[in-house]
Design brief:
The chain has 164 residues and is an alpha/beta fold. Helix content is 45%, strand content 15%. A 4-stranded mixed sheet has the order 1-2-4-3. The longest helix has 17 residues.
Length: 164
């Protein structure tokens, strides 16, 4: 049997790591990696927190003094469309340590209400967004980079069967 992705989910807030949230997070990560052509088993560590927790991480890691919805910390400096290979795996585990993501479950709930869709959809979208960041996609400009990232997000969300 082929080795699967390892996706530990840690929660700093009660109830955040429910079975349904963890299942959706893992399914979304696996779907995104498959859609992007990642064929090697990867490790992606996920932290579920609140606005206060993500604010602290954002300040410590990026020097940004405010909360946000999701933070991504890639282990590799990839370009969009570039994927890690077997040579990138940790010899001890056989897994490629793709990176970490941190999600504010407070933002998930608030943005779902703001955009008029379910918290499930917002969580899947933010996880998809984060995986793409781990794989080198960005949206610093309002042009091509952002359009490319949005197109890939749409494909992954469609594969998940989660629409707007």
């Amino acid at each position: 049997m082929a080795k699967r992705h390892y996706i530990p989910v840690t929660a700093e807030v009660p109830g955040a790591a429910s079975d349904s949230n963890c299942a959706l997070i893992r399914k979304t990560i696996r779907t995104a990696l498959e859609a992007e052509g990642v064929t090697v088993p990867c490790e992606v560590d996920v932290l579920l927190t609140d606005d206060e927790g993500i604010h602290a991480v954002n300040l410590e890691m990026r020097g940004v003094d405010r909360p946000t919805d999701v933070l991504s910390f890639p282990s590799f400096d990839l370009r969009p469309g570039e994927v890690p290979g077997p040579e990138d795996a940790d010899p001890a585990t056989g897994l490629v340590p793709l990176g970490d993501m941190c999600l504010s479950m407070e933002r998930v709930k608030a943005q779902a209400a703001e955009y008029g869709h379910s918290s499930r959809r917002e969580l899947a979208y933010l996880v998809t967004h984060s995986v793409l960041h781990l794989l080198g996609y960005d949206h610093l400009d309002e042009g091509e980079e952002k359009a490319l990232m949005r197109a890939h997000e749409d494909v992954i969300m469609d594969k998940l069967g989660i629409t707007r």
